[in-house]
Specification:
mainly alpha, flat, CHAD domain-containing protein, CHAD_dom_sf, single chain, CHAD_dom, Four Helix Bundle (Hemerythrin (Met), subunit A), about 350 residues
Length: about 350
Amino acid sequence: MLRDMTRATTAAIAASGEISPAAAPADAEAIALPDAANMRRMSAAHLLVTLAALPLRQWPSVPLHPESDARAGAFDPEAIHQLRIATRRLRALIDVFSPWLKPRWYRRIKAELCWLGHTMGPARDADVLATTTLPALRTEHPDIDWPAIDAHVAKLRSDARALAAEALASERQQALHALLLEAFGIGADGHADRQAAKALRRPSRTPGKRPRALAKHARNVLRARYIALFPDCRQLAMLDTEQLHALRVKVKRARYSAEALTPWLRKAIRTPYQDTLHTAQTLLGQLNDAVVAQRALEDMEIPATQRDTLNGRLDTIIVNATSRAAHVLCHLPDAHTLERGMRKD
């Protein structure tokens, strides 16, 4: 029943046409995981390097002349999007498996991934604003001074892309890529070798190297990510946009953790749980896009009445997305159901 409700909600949202394509699931986010039974038999170190190799294969290549290309803003926006996905997944992965990582390596990798993710963010926001959010508003309000808005957004988009391209072509990004390959023992062929991974702790300093230790840790992580959602979920309608953004981050962490620890969730609970988190993330992403648009409108040289008109429509989108997200999150399994759905070994 839970699965049917979640699918029905997802289908209704998709049919409504209010979800932006940028917020919808992309092919770049689909990662083929190893067989679940094999993953449960792996040690934590083996599983960590295996999973880390997957997003690193999506890492975009750097051009031969990075400085000139960065100035020209020559990077494909899709490459920036893929890089953001890869950094998010790697950050979730090192958080989940932090007990098996050397603290110095963990702190360094996390800091560099945060830097890269934050650098790529404005470019992605500007792309969504230009290609999704504003075109929808243009259809509803054709009398707005759109040439002035288009000029402002074009400048905003160009500046954000230039900064992202500069970061992507920088020595710091290349050093980060090399650091990740070294940390997880990724060879030139893209495959991981845990014996060559420099970031792994000695087994004696970890919760254990046997699969049973990883199973116990997986249950603890899944439980913690699940519990973290509820203080905000219970009062979602009362949260401001900053708090809703923080909730979106928690939903992402819960979703990516559940994906990394898929083998320890039984199928009966895994599918509805992950579908619910994905739908909630999509709705909260739509809300965030509307907030980004409102902030951009503040700096645009258009009549105040036109700005108020657009802000009013964006407020409606925010309210609707909040209401739908609250409805979707109500379909999360209760704690007892989730506990029964987790494998013990």
